[in-house]
Amino acid sequence: MGWGFLFLDLMDWRLMSQIEHGLGVCTVIVTLDAEREDMGDLLSHARMGLERFAEWEGFVAGALHLSQDGTRLVQYLQWANEEAYVRCRDAPVWEHLSSTRRFMAHVDAGRARVDARIFSVLASAVAPV
C-alpha cells in the first residue's frame, strides 16, 4: 500500500484529488492570468464549471487555486480518461451559458490569458502521518 492510499484511508476521499503516479487518470491543468479587477467574472465561471463537471461521466476530482496576488487562477482537474475530458470540454452546453460569454469576452479582449494542458504525474510525495 502506497502513501497515497494510506492518506485516502485517513480522510474522506470525496474531499480531495489524489495526485499519484500510475493512477491512470487524465490530469488537466488550466492556468488563467488576468488583472485583479477582471478576476471576479473569471473566477465565477471557473467555480460554476467545477460544480458542473461533477455531473459529467468520467469526472474524478478538481480544485481551484487563486494566487495570493489575485492575478492567477489555476484549475486542477482529474478525469477518468482523455476522452471524458474532451467530451465535456467540447460539449455545446457551455456556449449557451452567460458566464461563458463573459469569460470569452475577457479572453477575446486580451484581458485574460488561458492555457489548458493535459499532464502526466511523474512523481508525488505525501508527508508521513
SSE layout:
Blueprint: H1 3-10, E1 26-34, H2 39-53, E2 59-66, E3 72-79, H3 82-89, H4 98-108, E4 112-119
Antiparallel strand pairs: 1-3, 1-4, 2-3
Helix pairs in contact: 2-4
Question: Can you characterise this structure?
Answer:
- The chain is an alpha+beta fold and 129 residues long.
- The protein has a single domain (23-119), classed as Alpha-Beta Plaits (2-Layer Sandwich), CATH 3.30.70.100.
- 33% of the residues lie in helices and 26% in strands.
- It has helices at residues 3-10, 39-53, 82-89, 98-108, and strands at 26-34, 59-66, 72-79, 112-119.
- Strands 2-3-1-4 form a four-stranded antiparallel sheet.
- Strand 2 (59-66) and strand 3 (72-79) form a beta hairpin.
- The radius of gyration is 16 Å and the shape is globular.
- It starts with a helix and ends in a 10-residue tail after the last strand.
- 16% of the residues are buried.
Distance between the termini: 14 Å
What is the CATH topology assignment?
A: Alpha-Beta Plaits
Kindly give the count of domains. 1
What is the assembly state of the chains in this entry?
A: single chain
Average pLDDT confidence is 83
Number of helices: 4
Strand order of the largest sheet: 2-3-1-4
Under CATH at level 1, the class stands as Alpha Beta
Shape: globular
